């Protein structure tokens, strides 16, 4: 196949990009109020904010922190497909209120040693995503920086697979939760 239209002064890579592209016949359905979607076409991301008591963040040592999500089965993937769920770290302050902008300004979770989690889109049940290093950093943040995490999938926009989870509008047992295990901080005696 050769391009029938050339873009003046464009590199061969740019001309090839206009030649080879995917066409989506059917995209992801718009999620209802009880569903959080990560991935799909168009690619969705999920943003979760938490309210962590100062008694935990300021005077305790967090030893485990997990976001608990209850997964719903999705039909937008092959039966055996797996997808990487990648955490993002929001970097904006509370002055930014547009969720799209907050997600665009988020940093890759690898910068805070947050690992991806492999999930099968057609599975269901409770999933635990480790965010220990992120939760430990919340105690040192300014008050105007939200305690939050966002999620995207690997190969976002390049595959139709999506992960679905219950939202905070779902029944209480299915809602996303933050599970933190912590110990009281002890001061070492002065010698």
Short synopsis of the structure:
By secondary structure, the chain is mainly beta. It has 4 helices and 10 strands, in the order H-E-E-H-E-E-H-E-E-E-H-E-E-E. The longest helix is centred in the N-terminal third of the chain and has 8 residues, at 12-19.
List the helices and strands and how they pair.
Elements lengths: L11 H8 L15 E5 L6 E5 L3 H4 L2 E13 L10 E7 L9 H6 L2 E2 L8 E3 L5 E6 L1 H6 L9 E7 L8 E5 L10 E8 L7
Antiparallel strand pairs: 1-9, 2-8, 3-7, 3-9, 3-10, 4-5, 4-6, 4-8
Explain this structure.
The mean pLDDT is 85. The strands form 2 sheets. Strands 1, 3, 7, 9 and 10 form a 5-stranded antiparallel β-sheet that branches. The chain has 191 residues and is mainly beta. The longest helix is centred in the first third of the chain and has 8 residues, at 12-19. The chain has helices spanning 12-19, 54-57, 99-104, 132-137; strands at residues 35-39, 46-50, 60-72, 83-89, 107-108, 117-119, 125-130, 147-153, 162-166, 177-184. It contains 4 helices and 10 strands.
